[in-house]
Amino acid sequence: TIDAAHERFTINFTITNLPYNSDLSTPDSAKYRTTRRVMNTLLDRLLKDSSIGPAFLGCETTAFRYGPLREGDNTAVDAVCTYKKEPSAAPLDRVGLYHEVSNKTSGITQLGPYSLDKDSLYVNG
């Protein structure tokens, strides 16, 4: 048997109740490490419970950056998620996954303790 290939997709969104500061751009800061760990856990839970769940391997938060909103304390999050793609499987349904994530985050407003900018979710396969 041939092993399934590992495929990746990115997911980006903006948190509106997490003030961005330089600690979040410093990978060895305690705030970066803690926030990244929490984010990875929340994303893993969210996607394990989705249609790609059985093939889902995990997400890694790759960056925190200034959010695009003009005012308020917001932080943009970039993450790369990995799943096993069977050779016979259809390509990732980005639109379907987007809608699932939207539904599981109350219309892209809530992820765990974080409030989300409802217009900020982007899934790119």
From TrEMBL:
**Sections of the chain in a coiled coil:** none
Where the record annotates domain SEA, the positions are 5-125
**Top-level taxon of origin:** Eukaryota
One of its Pfam families is: SEA
Q: Which InterPro entries match?
A: MUC16, SEA_dom, SEA_dom_sf
Question: Sorted alphabetically, which PROSITE patterns does this protein's record hold?
Answer: SEA
Under PANTHER family, the record lists: MUCIN-16 (PTHR14672)
Name this polypeptide is given: Mucin-16
Organism the protein comes from = Cuculus canorus (Common cuckoo)
